[in-house]
Amino acid sequence: MKVISDLNQLALVDRSLAAVWHPCTQMKHHESFPLIAITKGKGPWLYDEQGNALLDCISSWWTNLFGHSNPHINQAIINQLKKIEHVMLAGFTHPPVVELSEKLSALTAGNLGHIFYASDGASAVEIALKMSHHYWQLNHKPQKKKFVCLQNGYHGETLGALAVTDVAIFRQAYGSLLQDVFTVSSPDARKAKSGERPEDIAQQAAQELEKLFAAEHEHIAAIIVEPLVQCAGQMAMHSPEYLRLVRALCDRYDIHLIADEIAVGCGRTGTFFACEHAGIWPDFLTLSKGISGGYLPLSLCMTTERIYSAFYSDQTQYGFLHSHSYTGNPLACAAALACLEIFESEKVLEKNQMRSHDLANAFIWAKTDSRIEHLRQQGMILAFDVRTEYLKDASAFPREMFSKSLSEGMLIRPIANTIYVMPPYILSTEECIQMGNSVQYALEKTLA
After folding, report:
1. Rounded to an integer, what distance in angstroms lies between the CA atom of residue 287 and that of residue 414?
2. Which one, of 244, 274, 279, 240, lies nearest residue 260 by Cα?
3. Among candidate residues 318, 345, 372, the one where a domain is terminated
4. HSE (CB half, 13 Å, CA atoms) of 50?
5. Which residues make Cβ contacts (< 8 Å) with residue 28, sequence separation at least 6?
6. In this structure, are 357 and 306 located in the same domain?
7. Three-state secondary structure string covering the chain
8. Are residues 131 and 18 in the same domain?
9. How confident is the model at residue 66 (pLDDT cuts 50, 70, 90)?
10. I need a labelling partner for 261 at 20 to 30 A (CA). Which of 5, 220, 276, 287 fits?
């Protein structure tokens, strides 16, 4: 297996640099750091035109669960392509979307038995927000239209989703376009002082939330949280106790709970849904990313019978007024069904328990490195922070670490001073060890 010995071999000149505007990217940086041209993928590996290999340690932005060019998913899409590639879901239906909906509902034991489809994660969040707002209108409580989000939370970059996203760079750029929301403390376990447990931080955050609910519940429609891990928020992890406490508060004050599981769902935390760790179900649960195995754009919002019934009427204006051209696309649904089949036939959740141990062992070196703090793990997510006093230029660190990791044959994408891995579920023990060693080497080069 060839890995990158010279970054310039991999960083091919992108002939379309002037035409393709890349996401969350300062395009001027690519004058000195050329774009990377990937021509194929196989399993957890990505390859360039020279055959140089990169281990996809972040599942291609947290989407690819079962490896690139997975034979089972490939075949499912091919089979569906021979039948119907797309049909609008308004007034029509098709077997893949029905089967997928039934299977997902069964995974919640029917607690979330109604599913609305979209294409990307932000759209699924928009659906949850709009559905909650509309529900309260239909129930003669139009004043309940404010939303609550967590500090350092991320839920997408469309205007509704961005309003409940607490990331400074986005608020600085687009804050004047966004509705006002309530922002409460994150239960981030890294806040724990000496002698405190993650559960203590969860209780403190919930106490603050309770004060807000007590004062403003008549105006609050819903609270949105990322269960267990605030992924874009530097992989901040919290105790399941927070979810239990929030669920109880929402019940007491008649407020909807939206669980954004776009990044943490589909087995990433150890259970299929992250909320299962707390033994609770939200009023809305959003999925995307891994649901189609990283193959095709697909997102969805699951909800309860109570919510669904409020919209069920002879009057068109009482229906949920939202649509996407590619809602419930048959090819994407076929890919998602193939993923669920892999979960079941290959006992993925059980095997991931062993893989999570491999992941921990691969980064055991980080426990004793004095430059590192807050080593943490939740299932198939592992992260740690580099102490800022060891960074010459904190703003340049993510790009430098990204570059050095490429030279070690690894694709990682640090968030500020946080280094994390979220690999596909098919990594072998040897590949896991290789990943840990290469990240260590890249960090040594970056900090040298």
Report:
1. 23
2. 274
3. 345
4. 14
5. none
6. no
7. CCECCCHHHHCCCCCCCCCCCCCCCCHHHHHCCCCCCCCEEEECEEECCCCCEEEECCHHHHCCCCCECCHHHHHHHHHHHCCCCCCCCCCCCCHHHHHHHHHHHHHCCCCCCEEEEECCHHHHHHHHHHHHHHHHHHCCCCCCCEEEEECCCCCCCCHHHHHCCCCHHHHHHHHHHCCCCEEECCCCHHHCCCCCCHHHHHHHHHHHHHHHHHHHHHHEEEEEECCCEECCCCCEECCHHHHHHHHHHHHHHCCEEEEECCCCCCCCCCCCCHHHHHCCCCCEEEECHHHHCCCCCCEEEEECHHHHHHHCCCCHHHCCCCCCCCCCCHHHHHHHHHHHHHHHHCCHHHHHHHHHHHHHHHCHHHHHCCCEEEEEEECCEEEEEECHHHCCCCCCHHHHHHHHHHHCCEECCCECCEEEECCCCCCCHHHHHHHHHHHHHHHHHHHC
8. no
9. very high
10. 220
- pTM equals 0.94
Domain co-membership, 84 together with 180: yes
The domain boundary residue, chosen from 284, 317, 345: 345
Range of the domain at 254: 74-345
Q: In this predicted model, what pLDDT tens digit does every residue of 338-397 receive, in sequence order?
A: 999 999 999 999 999 999 999 999 999 999 999 999 999 999 999 999 999 999 999 999
Q: What is the pLDDT of residue 26?
A: 80
